[in-house]
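$ ./design --mode recover --in tokens.txt
reading tokens...
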């Protein structure tokens, strides 16, 4: 999604608040809760959750291992929920022709550097580069090629988008910036 005028273009970047992440977080927390409850049930000697029977599980070593995996799964699940709640990775790319500045803003993890804000001069933009790899794991990434600097990715690495969509986005951006496109 983007907003554009004659002098300003803002591309909104989607973060970790996605349906797939919500699904994985739910599955991870539910599975980890099941593992923990079966491990604790084997220690107590009676089932904490009636559906999950622990009659065949001896506390040492199976119950301890299930508790360990359950606790580890809960930590990973809550970590994923925290990244979804904080919407880590979301932000925008802003191109301002009047000021001649291209800026990148992203939300990071909680802490001192939660806000990631980087600015570049637009005159340093050499071209728009499109990297496309087809196959088992397709990769379609849009970069800004800068003079005397590394390429700057504009799309998320894991973001899946159709070839036509990324091609149109590259063409619109190159037209707005009046730079060539590389990588077709």
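writing sequence...
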């Amino acid at each position: 999604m983007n907003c554009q005028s004659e002098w300003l273009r803002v591309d909104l970047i989607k973060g970790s608040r996605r349906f797939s992440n919500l699904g994985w977080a739910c599955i991870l927390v539910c599975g980890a809760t099941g593992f923990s409850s079966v491990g604790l049930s084997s220690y107590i000697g009676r089932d904490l959750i009636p559906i999950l029977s622990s009659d065949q599980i001896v506390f040492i070593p199976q119950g301890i291992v299930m508790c360990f995996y359950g606790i580890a799964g809960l930590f990973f699940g809550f970590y994923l929920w925290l990244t979804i709640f904080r919407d880590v990775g979301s932000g925008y790319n802003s191109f301002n022709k009047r000021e001649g500045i291209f800026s990148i803003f992203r939300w990071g993890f909680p802490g001192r550097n939660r806000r990631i804000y980087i600015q570049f001069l637009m005159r340093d933009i050499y071209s728009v580069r499109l990297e496309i790899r087809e196959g088992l794991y397709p990769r379609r990434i849009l970069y800004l090629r800068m003079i005397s600097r590394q390429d700057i990715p504009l799309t998320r690495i894991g973001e899946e988008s159709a070839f036509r969509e990324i091609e149109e986005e590259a063409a619109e951006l190159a037209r707005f910036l009046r730079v060539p496109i590389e990588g077709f």
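exit 0
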